[in-house]
């Protein structure tokens, strides 16, 4: 029988970890007794970095040790995720990933790491994507846009933050579910795509809520839908796509913590339990709301299942739409 490390880790996390972990406790002493590191596979200032620093700040307070955020951008997040996977599994190395982590499993034919090299710790929060159109266009709702797109194939151009991004994949899923054809224009990041949406060079852009809340509130763009099963408190007047008749359509980015495989199970559990409490703190709930994030705090097993579901969902889109990496 072949050795399945992911199933083995699940068994440890389900309750057998205390026996295996004992040598670690004896050898290392009380945990934590030195600073911890959280790797972010993206540059400072973006969604992933903000989420990482927010969690790190509260973890540091609760654990009594510095929790240092280290940015390792590049390679479509592959460099940073590989660094997480190859870190020492000593209970002091973690990383924050987003939806691209799941998509990349199918998007790239070869990765420098494997899913079995990383252990889920906690699903921190989910940020539904929001659809917005240029404010001067005649369609103001998702259904109006779809009606126009069906009557005018290719007349709607949509922007994304790059091939294989959550924005790209979610819009392709929307096309599949509505039987429409819209032209994809990839950009190097969300900022230039939003600029071209405002300028009228593209007609549609779906982005993480944090990037569109203010442009929608200030009237620079028209919000047409939230890709979730519930509305965002920060955009109460923007209905979901599901409310508008596109049943089952959801798309999001999310932030979750991983650790290198082999990290002691009691450390995984402790960090997961702490994050579950952190995301309930009033100041964190308030910050999440302004960012358009629904708090989760799901533990290792639930996060593991969530990742598998995301890999399957977006893998199907990638294969059907024949999407390739940049």
Description:
By secondary structure, the chain is of the alpha/beta class. The protein contains 11 helices and 10 strands. The protein has helices at residues 5-28, 47-63, 78-85, 100-107, 142-151, 166-178, 190-199, 209-217, 265-278, 282-291, 300-321; strands at 36-40, 67-71, 93-97, 118-134, 157-160, 183-186, 204-208, 221-226, 252-260, 294-298. Strands 1, 2, 3, 4, 5, 6, 7, 8, 9 and 10 form a 10-stranded mixed sheet that branches. Helix 2 links the parallel strand 1 and strand 2. Helix 1 (5-28) crosses helix 9, helix 4 packs across helix 11 and helix 6 packs across helix 11 (300-321). The protein starts with a helix and ends in a 5-residue tail after the last helix. Residues 11-27 have low confidence and may be disordered.
C-alpha end-to-end distance: 38 Å
**Into which percentage range does the β-strand content fall?**
15-25%
N-to-C order of helices and strands: HEHEHEHEHEHEHEHEEHHEH
Low-confidence stretches: 11-27
Query: What is the number of E strands?
Result: 10
Largest sheet: number of strands, sense, barrel closure: 10 strands, mixed
**Radius of gyration using CA atoms only:** 20 Å
> Per the principal axes of the C-alpha atoms, what is the gross shape?
globular
Number of helices: 11
Helical proportion? Answer: 40-55%
Roughly what is the average pLDDT, rounded to an integer? 92
Structural class: alpha/beta
